[in-house]
């Protein structure tokens, strides 16, 4: 999407496409490229994962590793205790609590076929990543 004007090329800024990814034009790189930023579009269950203090997130990861869904169940109650989530501003605390309870139930019910156990471990890892980003001051959408 480049235009020729007066012998120079000008790029246009593309703000967002249908997949939820954003690209931004920035300073030219050494190779003449453009800086591109990509943001992941999260589903409602994943966006409902609360940002907890780091020690609580590690405990939830430990619980999810050995008893699938238990750490996610505990994290649902941290929402009621003030833990923040990306969805709270859109849907409210009660809805985010129930989304986390639903995720815990899915993990428990599908643990028999290993899917829930693996999902539970990844959920716990996401909790720890969000907590470490919170402690370092990095925005949640990273």
TrEMBL record:
Q: Which InterPro entries match?
A: SPEC3/Stum
- Keywords for this protein: Membrane, Transmembrane, Transmembrane helix
Under Pfam families, the record lists: Spec3
- Designated name of the protein: Stum, mechanosensory transduction mediator homolog
Q: Where in the cell is it found?
A: Membrane
- One of the record's GO cellular component terms: membrane
Name its species.
Poecilia latipinna (sailfin molly)
Q: How does it sit in the membrane?
A: Multi-pass membrane protein
User: Transmembrane residues, as ranges?
Assistant: 54-83, 95-119
- Name the domain of life: Eukaryota
Asked if the keyword Transmembrane belongs to this entry, the reply reads yes
């Amino acid at each position: 999407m480049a235009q020729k004007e007066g012998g120079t090329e000008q790029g246009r800024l593309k703000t967002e496409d249908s997949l939820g990814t954003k690209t931004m034009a920035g300073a030219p790189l050494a190779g003449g490229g453009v800086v591109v930023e990509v943001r992941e579009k999260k589903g409602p269950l994943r966006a409902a994962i609360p940002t907890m203090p780091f020690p609580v997130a590690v405990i939830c990861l430990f619980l999810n590793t050995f008893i699938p869904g238990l750490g996610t169940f505990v994290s649902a109650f941290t929402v009621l205790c003030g833990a923040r989530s990306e969805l709270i501003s859109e849907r409210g605390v009660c809805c985010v609590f129930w989304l986390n309870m639903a995720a815990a139930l899915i993990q428990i019910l599908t643990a028999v076929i290993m899917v829930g156990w693996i999902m539970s471990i990844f959920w716990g890892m996401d909790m720890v990543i969000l907590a470490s980003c919170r402690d370092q001051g990095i925005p949640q959408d990273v």
